[in-house]
Amino acid sequence: MVRRYEHPDDFDALWDLKRAFELELGASTGGDDKEAAYEAKLDDDYRERYREWVADCVEKGEGCIHVAEADAEEQAASHAEAQAAPTDALAGYAFVLPDDLSMIWDAAVLNEIYVREPLRGTGVADDLLDAAVEAAERQDLPLDRLVLDVDPSNERAQAFYRRHGFEPWGEMVARSL
Question: Where are the beta strands (DSSP E) in the chain?
């Protein structure tokens, strides 16, 4: 079941998902340096800054974050595969930036979408993306478009977004500061 994120009640579970997202991103989209940098940034200060930013985004854009609750069977499978004790009932999340930030790309921005590994391919990501699109459709945007950044080497994600009607629209580049 997908529902709106409730702050602060859902924050610890959201943070667990965000941390997993960041660690996976660092490990799968760059070399050892990127992985180490992503691991290093996830300290208590980053967690607190993220908590404050989430609270600010939720205040500005009601419904900008959606979470998917795992049913009992999915939860058991997820924790069995992770060989860990259950810590929460969230399977994933989708985070659309509030519309006051839409001027960044002149469009709605799907900042993050993440589903726990054992629950990928079960329809959870489809449901989260549907909720994200609905949230974006409610925004007052310069362009009626939802944009996101996806690693070009992530073929599974590329296929997922194509299946949902996304198409290439520029390319992001970055440099160190």
Answer: 2-4, 65-69, 90-96, 108-115, 146-147
